[in-house]
Amino acid sequence: MLRYFLISLCAVLALASCGAGAEPRYIELMPTQAVEMIGKDTGLTVLDVRTAEEFAAGHLPGAINIDYHADDFARQLATLPENRPVLVYCRSGNRSGKTVPLLRDLGFADIRHMNGGWLAWQDAGLAAE
């Protein structure tokens, strides 16, 4: 009986671990880590999901803007190259945090999320456009 239980437990754990790595992951970055990535990764897509007005007031170097509240937000995300790494941010991390699963669902495998968003970037005194 114990042997049957142990074999069953091993089988369940083996199956559970197979699915654990199947879903693309994302990496949380601090603003100082994000600025390093922006400086050395020329294939990086820097995605700002704030409103156009927020974006116009200042944004990360090289960022593109797709408004999280736009009716066609998911369609616009789908136009981005999914084979390139993407760094997503917003004002505080709320909208960009909700964007991460959408990017995963669209097939993006290399997703970076900036902790604290634009506010943390400004607090760190980092350069902006």
TrEMBL record:
SMART domains documented for this protein: RHOD
Lineage top rank: taxon: Bacteria
Signal peptide feature range: 1-22
MF (Gene Ontology): thiosulfate-cyanide sulfurtransferase activity
UniProt-listed Gene3D superfamilies: Rhodanese-like domain (3.40.250.10)
Residue ranges of every copy of the Rhodanese domain listed in the record: 40-129
PROSITE patterns: PROKAR_LIPOPROTEIN, RHODANESE_1, RHODANESE_3
Keyword vocabulary terms for this entry: Signal
Pfam families noted in UniProt: Rhodanese
Name listed for the protein in its UniProt record: Sulfurtransferase
